Amino acid sequence: MTPILTAANLHKSFSGGGMFRAVTGEKRAVIDASFELSAGETLAIVGESGSGKSTTARMAMRLLPIDSGQMLWDGEDVSSLSARALRSRRHFIQMVFQDPFASLNPRMKIWESVAEGLRVHHRDLSRSQRRQRVAETLALCGLDDSGMDRYPHQFSGGQRQRIGIARALVVEPKVLVLDEPVSALDVSVQAQILNLLNKLQRDRGLSYLFISHDLSVVRHIADRVAVMFAGRIVETGSAETVFGRCRHPYTQALLDARPIAHPAERALDSVPVAADEGVADSGCPFQLRCPRVQADCANFDCRLNAEGYACLHPSR
Amino acid sequence: MLEVSDLSLSVSIQGESVEAVSGVSLKLEAGSVLGLVGESGCGKSMTAQAMLRLGEHQGVTKAGGDILIDGQSLFSMDDETLRHVRGGRVAMIFQEPMTALNPVFSVGSQLIEVIRLHLDMDKRQARARAIGLLQDVGMQDAEQLLAHYPDALSGGMRQRVLIAMAMAADPDYIIADEPTTALDVSVQKRIIALLLNLQKKRNLGLLLVTHDFGLVAEMCDQVAVMYAGQIVEAGPVKEIFDHPAHPYTRALMGCRPEVSEPGVLMPVIGGQVPPPGRWPVGCHFAPRCALADNACQAPVVAKAWRSGEHIARCLHVPEVGQ
């Protein structure tokens, strides 16, 4: 079966803003990202800020031009399609943003915001038909139609994220790209939204590309995981493998940094306190922070091997 | 000791004074870490800011109770003494390190300014202290860092600079409001370890304001759980994790992704936190609580449970957590 999304060697570099790079170690570029997403599946891309995970998501959405590499939507190469050609295909893939408040126009009524996609992709619908579709979509997302004529500030964070999801769903996409969709929410609300996403996926066969830095959330929702560091995917596999027996030391570091569930699990005495955020310019990018580093890491080409990790000295 | 005693705070909503924090009591002792936990809008940040008498210019006023440092009321102090307490005895670390730092001044000038505000030092001495403080918070190349501007730093490094600023005048108490929420997980752990390390070394009293039970598990000795303006449960951290009493505490702990099973629906708390002005008359949590009955319609006071140290504001406490 053809994957619903295929990314092959996506590459993106940004020029400018380099003056302070040396201090922050921040490189948002994507050097090499390849992945496949199957129908009905959730692939999580995890990594810290600057790892390139959001840039990868934006290339997958074709919100950013792709420098080199290929992006296929349902088997069709969209890497170099024009803006006009993309517009007619955008109903296939839609995005949900981290901050639903920032992504909703404060001066537009909720129903108008949600209906925006319909005005582009379903121009034949009348106003009342659009309102009807919006009401149905809001209902899917757990909101009744009494809020249709209200404004974003009249809703709580969780409700706004439901609106953000409805806005993406209204054009009936096959794929949702979710960029940190729950990280701005309270835990109790986060659980509600994760349950909603699970339900929508089950009921409608949606595929999710889930971007997150929070491994506890990812463990809950993902079927497969790709771990990004400094613009490259350094480990990928089923959620079970990545969480159960990961090989890359960076993945291990991310897992170790997860919040603990009970005070009895405290092990902070072993955590070093010094700042440590460096990224190596050549060889393995993680070598400056890696507990398993050896001399040959300086010349490593960082390609994923057949087992799905890019490391010369893996754990276990 | 820094003590919040039966504190109530009001805010002005559309010209009307509305209670937003109701009868909160907390004791922050030297050498201990107290967690104040709750969801957005529960009043935890407002309480924390009141402990430095901040927020008053935003229309937050004291409606009752008191805040005492070593027995002296913050509300009976003259401005000069209060200025000394702020930063000198009680320092604050905010969530968003980019907004807490001034983008147009270098790290060094901001740090040196704070040092000289509180300590009698000339520029050279203050500069040397600034370098020392940056080293204390785990920054390499501290001297070069002084010349940098905040936007040249990563989120984690900015938070380290803020922690250094909080330590500038050797305070006795630190109030940290969501100090790691804006940071990457990989950076969070180190910042937490750093904060605890400084807290132990300097015997600080640390108040951690957070929505994250994971952080509480990691850092705190004592916990107070807030819901809709009230403390609903408080006690020693192990006791609260092992025997949570209040239905809200139990529900909030249950919906953490780190304790839930993958692939199954996560437990949720139905409904929403009522905003100030729309609190129920009786137990504030009753409309969302599975155990609520008619008795919960009347005001509920906190009572001791299991031990004198563990209190819960629930009529049904004997039925839960056993």
Question: What does this protein structure show overall?
Answer:
Chain A has a single domain, classed as 3-Layer(aba) Sandwich (Rossmann fold). Helices cover 31% and strands 18% of the residues of chain A. Chain A has eleven helices and ten strands. Chain A has helices spanning 21-24, 53-60, 83-87, 100-103, 110-121, 127-140, 157-169, 187-204, 215-221, 239-244, 249-256, and strands at 5-12, 30-37, 42-46, 68-73, 76-77, 93-96, 175-179, 207-212, 224-229, 232-238. In chain A, the strands form two sheets. Chain A has a six-stranded mixed sheet, with helices on both faces. In chain A, a hairpin with a 2-residue loop joins strand 4 and strand 5. In chain A, helix 5 (110-121) packs across helix 6 (127-140), helix 5 (110-121) packs parallel to helix 7 and helix 7 runs parallel beside helix 8. Chain B has 322 residues and is an alpha/beta fold. Chain B has a domain at 237-257 and 271-322. Chain B is 32% helix and 24% strand. Chain B is built from eleven helices and twelve strands. In chain B, a hairpin with a 2-residue loop joins strand 4 (61-69) and strand 5 (72-73). The chains are: A alpha/beta (316), B alpha/beta (322). At the A-B interface, helix 8, helix 9 and helix 11 of A face helix 7, helix 8, helix 9 and helix 10 of B.
Strand-helix topology:
The complex is a heterodimer of chains A (316) and B (322).
Chain A: E1 5-12, H1 21-24, E2 30-37, E3 42-46, H2 53-60, E4 68-73, E5 76-77, H3 83-87, E6 93-96, H4 100-103, H5 110-121, H6 127-140, H7 157-169, E7 175-179, H8 187-204, E8 207-212, H9 215-221, E9 224-229, E10 232-238, H10 239-244, H11 249-256
Parallel strand pairs in A: 3-8, 3-9, 6-7, 7-8
Antiparallel strand pairs in A: 1-2, 1-4, 4-5, 9-10
Chain B: E1 2-13, E2 16-28, E3 33-37, H1 44-50, E4 61-69, E5 72-73, H2 79-89, E6 90-93, H3 97-100, H4 107-118, H5 123-136, H6 142-145, H7 155-167, E7 173-177, H8 185-201, E8 205-210, H9 213-219, E9 222-227, E10 230-236, H10 237-242, H11 247-254, E11 303-305, E12 307-312
Parallel strand pairs in B: 3-8, 3-9, 6-7, 7-8
Antiparallel strand pairs in B: 1-2, 1-4, 4-5, 9-10, 10-12, 11-12
